[in-house]
Amino acid sequence: MRFTVLISAILLVLCISSAYSFDKTGMVLYLSFNEGNGNIAKDSSGTGNDGDIMGNYQWINGIKGKALKLPDDSADNKVVVKANASLDFTKAMSYGGWVNVEALPDGSCSFITKADSYMIHTSDWSKKGVEVEPLLWPFDAWQTPISSPIPFGEWHHVVGTFGGGKLKAYVDGTLINERDFASDIAVTTNDLVIGRDSRGCCNTRRQIISVDEVFAFNREISASEVKELMEGNITAVSSKGRLSTLWGEIKTKN
Question: What is the pTM of this model?
């Protein structure tokens, strides 16, 4: 009888652990921007991909804790994560976070860029708001069905994922659309830049942008994981979602 109770208790613990722990496999970047001061954004993924905050910037209240705001007085206002093999993806990846674009004086810029490899482009081409669009290289197209407008001056959770030849875009936890991308992602030695477009063609572009909870995975995360990341960033640690373990670990490290 006691043995049966013990086994049942162990199984219960395992079930609870499985239900409430987020799968961090493949996470190579997580910048919570909760420092609130200084010029380093600490990486909570365990990979060591800290971001150097450059130019003019302001620490503000974010979705959860602090966030970083970059004004549009210079193209050099940005966060730079040094290039290394952990940020090189070929067959699959996921990237995104919370973003608030207030102005695009040059018409377009970027949320996240690893020049000539991948980016989440920001632009006003549709005149419907800020068009956010995941792009991959070798470059094939833009202004595609996965481009989605979000209002200026509002926080939104924007994510791009790639796997199985499909490039997908999510906004606020909802799949916007997907399209085919037949190639492997190009690998470059360029740094990963947050808040600016670092491509040679476009590195003078500016925007007023605030960023929070920026992440990258070397795998395609699922639709449910996209939603869990979004929900975990705006709610306190609790047993209601599987992200609670991840959120607690991230907060402990910052």
Answer: 0.85
Distance CA 48, CA 51 (A): 9
What letter represents residue 162's amino acid? F
Mean pLDDT, residues 21-44: 93
d(CA 2, CA 131): 61
Domain boundaries, the chain: 25-253
Confidence of residue 15 (pLDDT cuts 50, 70, 90): very low
Does the pLDDT of residue 34 top 90, yes or no? yes
Domain 25-253 has CATH 3.90.470.20: no
Strand boundaries in the chain, DSSP class E? 27-31, 40-41, 51-54, 58-61, 66-70, 78-81, 93-103, 108-114, 118-123, 130-136, 148-150, 156-163, 166-171, 174-180, 192-194, 208-217
